[in-house]
Amino acid sequence: xxxxxxxxxxxxxxxxxxxxxxxxxxxxxxxxxxxxxxxxxxxxxxxxxxxxxxxxxxxxxxxxxxxxxxxxxxxxxxxxxxxxxxxxxxxxxxxxxxxxxxxxxxxxxxxxxxxxxxxxxxxxxxxxxxxxxxxxxxxxxxxxxxxxxxxxxxxxxxxxxxxxxxxxxxxxxxxxxxxxxxxxxxxxxxxxxxxxxxxxxxxxxxxxxxxxxxxxxxxxxxxxxxxxxxxxxxxxxxxxxxxxxxxxxxxxxxxxxxxxxxxxxxxxxxxxxxxxxxxxxxxxxxxxxxxxxxxxxxxxxxxxxxxxxxxxxxxxxxxxxxxxxxxxxxxxxxxxxxxxxxxxxxxxxxxxxxxxxxxxxxxxxxxxxxxxxxxxxxxxxxxxxxxxxxxxxxxxxxxxxxxxxxxxxxxxxxxxxxxxxxxxxxxxxxxxxxxxxxxxxxxxxxxxxxxxxxxxxxxxxxxxxxxxxxxxxxxxxxxxxxxxxxxxxxxxxxxxxxxxxxxxxxxxxxxxxxxxxxxxxxxxxxxxxxxxxxxxxxxxxxxxxxxxxxxxxxxxxxxxxxxxxxxxxxxxxxxxxxxxxxxxxxxxxxxxxxxxxxxxxxxxxxxxxxxxxxxxxxxxxxxxxxxxxxxxxxxxxxxxxxxxxxxxxxxxxxxxxxxxxxxxxxxxxxxxxxxxxxxxxxxxxxxxxxxxxxxxxxxxxxxxxxxxxxxxxxxxxxxxxxxxxxxxxxxxxxxxxxxxxxxxxxxxxxxxxxxxxxxxxxxxxxxxxxxxxxxxxxxxxxxxxxxxxxxxxxxxxxxxxxxxxxxxxxxxxxxxxxxxxxxxxxxxxxxxxxxxxxxxxxxxxxxxxxxxxxxxxxxxxxxxxxxxxxxxxxxxxxxxxxxxxxxxxxxxxxxxxxxxxxxxxxxxxxxxxxxxxxxxxxxxxxxxxxxxxxxxxxxxxxxxxxxxxxxxxxxxxxxxxxxxxxxxxxxxxxxxxxxxxxxxxxxxxxxxxxxxxxxxxxxxxxxxxxxxxxxxxxxxxxxxxxxxxxxxxxxxxxxxxxxxxxxxxxxxxxxxxxxxxxxxxxxxxxxxxxxxxxxxxxxxxxxxxxxxxxxxx
Length: 1097
Ligand SMILES: [Zn+2]
Ligand SMILES: [Zn+2]
Fold this sequence. Notes:
By secondary structure, this protein is α+β, with helices and mostly antiparallel strands. Helices cover 33% and strands 20% of the residues. Strands 19, 20, 21, 22, 23, 24, 25, 26, 27, 28 and 29 form an 11-stranded mixed sheet that branches. Strands 3, 6, 7, 8, 9, 10, 11, 12 and 13 form a 9-stranded mixed sheet that branches. Strand 6 (310-315) and strand 7 (321-333) form a beta hairpin. The protein is globular, with a radius of gyration of 32 Å. One zinc ion is lined by residues 1068, 1070, 1075, 1080-1081.
């Protein structure tokens, strides 16, 4: 029996045909499966660990606004002022930087979108209320003249707070809530606190300061203040010449991270891993190559082979021919103890491509000349024969060598070519000398990911301060995306020199490269490592790699393309790449120049700054370890694509587009967006990305003929791009399909070798198309940056690993603190607040405060088990990931259970009313067919064989639950209408090999069935049956949806099959008629799977 293909009328069932497995393209890091399940449900990578609904985000947002208003009340002396402040705050709402992703106290899941969603929802709320209301007034006369606040409600309480309030307590609370505009989250916490049995009113101090002073007793992390000079050009002349910059010592942060048991056990400090699906930083080329993180040498037959050594080996791909190569990395094969070696191919004259064979090269080969290639292969160490001495002629001549290399053979735009040997990225082993590590200590090699970004904490004046944050590349993707795992290093005060502030960090990283001992929980360990990557947005990244601004003549930090040629996708980015050692010599030229004018000329010519970034004094490749940010790049391009698209629509086109857009079947987790044509400029980056996930469908539905386009663009396309009138619409749709496809590939959370190649092909595909429609887009720096994405992706396994959106949210956290600070020393407030939060988090995660004995420590852990403490922490981003989730002692007499102890905290929401049942065509009592299916579900999935008596079920709109699997917990929330994905076993009984495909089903209903005092949740599914063909225009697979009346495939399943948050999007394949204004023709059962859909980060 296959999960999808269970015929309802057959009884045969073999449990063993179900397997729990991840679907390949929606794979998550978590390899563990829930063992007692036989079906394996595809695990989506972007599971929400803590699935907060947009609703709760909204509440939180209101709460924050209220808090800030509240604070303004505190600080301002009169009403006028606070009114002013409120306006200012509202202005903030439209500040792109501020509102893009606004969240403050919440767990961010792994899903920024969810948060962004919450915000845009709120944003929508602010703007839509009016719009909807006007709309209603226009179309619906009965709203006219309706009266509000009309004194019809009359309370007559008799107590001392009567007649308006039932008692004095409510009266006080009411005043307090109204005065300080208390939000619902804050109120909920307050109510929980005062209702706690241990709460004692006599212990409540009158002063807030008394409560706050207990912070100082916590095991805070010591940080240092450094005096830095201020650049007085930017500050009023009255201000001081110096200020203090506060920096956390790197050693202290690393020590705290290693001492945190919840982090320590999930971090990876081993050699580079070779695997098919690359997801983590240690799957990427950078980790593989660098001796700071990976393996430096391997011993084979008593010979030590180092990274960078040249070897002779038997090439099994060419019939065991003896070949030359260079050891690039020494890797462990995933899930085994086997070692493999990646080598760069070095070829002899005979292997040169035909076009490159010349008499001159032949003669050189007689003297011992070989050729290097960019081509790498993986070999088994046993195929290595011996070392061989080869001289790369761009470096000093060694004392003895057998061969030499002058040229690199490479392929550019399908043509073979050569470039001089010095046009190569030096292998890290050529510029990093690692220190001897003590053999008797456990070794931890840290991969540092430094994020630097400026932000304006104040709305009214530009007063940019720079945040410096640390992430640890040794953490898996899922941990790196949590806000609490962004560690604050310090701030660059307004108008202070970045280099000066960074100096203590630079010194700390140098110390780390050398390595040092640390005492971690009574054990001495050796800590080393170094800088892995600097992440940043475009301007900051150029600064940190020493390159001029991106608008300069040569403003790309990876190659020497001229600003006027940004559109040229055939540009040879290998030959004209920026190479670290070459840029270094350029910096030397500049520093040797005699006059300022000369320096400026050189600086313009090389496209570099006059002084290198201070990060140049640590071991790094400034061009490779400063990758471009995919989020800003693709978000920016999406915005351009949308703007240009709306620009070519005439009013007929706009109206039709908006009509389709308004009625579109959005993914259920999205909130409503603002009108894209009129409000595109107030969209956030994430909104641009979302809209582009559905643009191909919107265009397919709305754009029917060229009469919807501006005539000038039609003429332009016919004349310049040589389209026929007939082709224009199809070509335009194809442009969008390729853009959306490209974006979805760029944000993949894991990459196979094929995916890297697909990405590269898609980038080229879209680049070619966009030039025909919107040549202006091809002039943008973001357009050119795409050329470098495949390299960045390979270096860091994925592009999301080095993208900044989660990091940018750190700013939101700090910005949200401003209303609570006295604004005198913002940086100090920020640092202290962060320190307090991280210290609380450390203790909650089970970290040990060395100053106390363990028994006393235990006390703090016990406190966090308290219901009220848990409630306070639950919506806070410092919430421990492993939280003791004991089943709440609810008052409900009937317990909801999946009959599986790994499924806890099961909650249903939104009981269906009679009306709901009618509109959804559901019956309270299951009909014969469904009742029989329910019986089978009990029997086969839950091992309950007894006869069922009750046909009665209760329907709900959603269900949420937590799955505990070893140390991992995942929170799931399913809603009616969601499309789940399941890996279906399609292997034949006779075949030994196990085959699966991903199948999809729509949740038609969620219901509880009561049996033996237990309420058991089930799903009623409608399966999407694959037609095995793709839509020709969009390239999306086509499906037929099973109808409720169609009993071919079984529909009722136990909830426990769904072990991950579903995140799939299907779109109705509307015909020319039948679907109108969002009401889709139910008799048309054909759907498309949206392959452009993803979760941005
Ligand atoms: Zn470039
Ligand atoms: Zn339709």
